[in-house]
């Protein structure tokens, strides 16, 4: 396998030369200003993502099958986090406000306002809020087959930044490179075309998506990872599939010895292998899985806590409360009281914003946009004016 060539930390821009053969001085961009997103456009990150994560830790997103791409705004307050998960689709995140860490496998990568995060389909990950104020994230999800289905090697190469993500891949694209604000511009253009009700809208979405991917291909041109990296990651995940299915069928009621038997490994090999593949030890993964499933039950049902504790595989309710408080920051009773609302039917509901399809907006102009212009686009989607006049450049 060929060795990967890393992006230099001191010079993240790709080397460019002018017509005379002289190297150009890399251009840097000031960190962008705050991007304001109307509250009614935002959805709670936990409520949108967590219920759709299965026992394998795989998030399944309900795409429109005719055009499997979506752009949405998510908020994260740090009170409860989405568990480590992966997904078959590819993901691009722009941090509009706040500060966070991107937890990707066993790595913690600082994620600052104006940065972009690039995540493929084989890596377990989540975003962890690190600021006192809630995060606001613009998220682009898309199925790679949307690009692959057109055939040809050139189309496949659009996806290289997502396929070559090994243990040292630089997932964060800093705001100073100027790339994140260009990507956000294209994300807003895609959002303005959703839902795609005509062939023209689908063509526009694909075009804007390819413009984003081309920016990323150029960004990672000097990062020569190999397809073998992606294939190895996929094989490792396949080895754990029987275990994940068992967890789903048995609500997490399992001991380490039985987990080793299911995957056919010794305990020492299993513990190191599981952590390398998922980024968490088996018991930590198991406790997160149990607690996060219990969060859904606490917020959506009136089932007694003792019953939930038993159903999730905890030895007793006291231990359930201890683990829950350590991971969530409050007791199960306090969590139920805070996050359950009654709809009049006697059943609790998780509070989340309703889906909003924006009106069409005029998004003409050059790819380089100021914060003010992006805020105006967001305002155009909802008929509200934004503030903050800080420019990207």
Question: What would you say this structure looks like, in words?
Answer:
With 393 residues, the protein is of the alpha+beta class. The protein folds into three domains: 39-225 and 363-382, Jelly Rolls (Sandwich), CATH 2.60.120; 227-279, no CATH class; 290-358, Arc Repressor Mutant, subunit A (Orthogonal Bundle), CATH 1.10.10. The chain is 39% helix and 15% strand. It is built from 14 helices and 13 strands. The strands form four sheets. A six-stranded mixed β-sheet has the order 1-3-10-5-8-11. Strands 7-6-9 form a three-stranded antiparallel β-sheet, with no helix packed on it. Strand 12 and strand 13 (348-350) form a beta hairpin. Helix 5 (179-192) runs antiparallel to helix 6 and helix 5 runs parallel beside helix 14. The radius of gyration is 22 Å and the shape is globular.
Main features:
3-stranded antiparallel sheet, 15% strand, 6-stranded mixed sheet, globular, alpha+beta, 13 strands, 14 helices, Jelly Rolls, Arc Repressor Mutant, subunit A, disordered C terminus, disordered N terminus
What's the short version?
39% of the residues lie in helices and 15% in strands. The chain has 393 residues and is an alpha+beta fold.
Compile the SSE list and pairings.
Elements: E1 42-44, H1 45-49, E2 58-59, E3 69-76, E4 86-87, E5 90-97, E6 100-104, E7 107-111, E8 116-119, E9 125-129, E10 135-142, H2 145-148, H3 153-157, H4 160-163, E11 172-173, H5 179-192, H6 199-219, H7 227-250, H8 256-263, H9 267-278, H10 282-300, H11 305-311, H12 317-328, H13 332-339, E12 340-342, E13 348-350, H14 371-382
Parallel strand pairs: 1-3, 2-4
Antiparallel strand pairs: 3-10, 5-8, 5-10, 6-7, 6-9, 8-11, 12-13
């Amino acid at each position: 396998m060929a060795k990967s060539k890393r992006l230099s930390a001191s010079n993240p821009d790709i080397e460019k030369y002018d017509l005379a053969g002289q190297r150009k001085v890399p251009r840097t961009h000031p960190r962008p200003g705050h991007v304001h997103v109307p509250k009614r456009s935002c959805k709670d990150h936990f409520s949108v993502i967590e219920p759709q994560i299965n026992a394998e830790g795989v998030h399944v997103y309900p795409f429109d099958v005719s055009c499997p791409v979506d752009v949405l705004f998510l908020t994260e307050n740090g009170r409860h986090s989405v568990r480590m998960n992966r997904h078959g689709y590819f993901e691009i995140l722009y941090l509009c406000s706040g500060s966070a860490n991107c937890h990707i496998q066993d790595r913690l990568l600082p994620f600052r306002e104006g940065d972009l995060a690039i995540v493929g389909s084989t890596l377990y990950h989540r975003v962890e809020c690190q600021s006192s104020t809630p995060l606001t994230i613009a998220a682009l999800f898309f199925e790679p087959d949307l690009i692959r289905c057109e055939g040809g090697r050139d189309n496949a190469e659009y996806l290289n930044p997502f396929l070559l993500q090994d243990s040292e891949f630089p997932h964060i694209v800093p705001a100073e490179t100027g790339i994140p604000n260009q990507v956000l511009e294209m994300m807003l253009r895609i959002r303005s075309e959703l839902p795609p009700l005509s062939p023209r809208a689908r063509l526009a979405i694909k075009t804007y998506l390819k413009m984003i991917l081309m920016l990323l291909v150029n960004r990672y041109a000097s990062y020569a990872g190999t397809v073998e990296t992606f294939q190895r990651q996929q094989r490792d995940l396949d080895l754990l599939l029987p275990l994940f299915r068992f967890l789903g069928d048995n609500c997490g009621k399992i001991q380490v010895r039985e987990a080793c038997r299911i995957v056919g490994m010794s305990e020492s090999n299993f513990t190191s292998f599981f952590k390398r593949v998922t980024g968490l030890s088996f018991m930590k993964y198991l406790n997160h899985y149990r607690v996060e499933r219990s969060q859904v039950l606490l917020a959506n049902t009136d089932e007694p806590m003792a019953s939930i504790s038993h159903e999730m595989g905890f030895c007793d309710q006291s231990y359930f409360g201890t683990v829950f408080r350590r991971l969530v920051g409050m007791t199960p009773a306090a969590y139920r009281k805070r996050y359950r609302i009654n709809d009049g039917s006697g059943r609790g509901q998780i509070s989340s914003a309703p889906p909003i399809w924006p009106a069409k907006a005029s998004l003409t102009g050059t790819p380089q946009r100021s914060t003010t212009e992006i805020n105006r686009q967001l305002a155009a989607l909802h008929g509200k004016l934004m503030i903050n006049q800080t420019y990207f450049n």
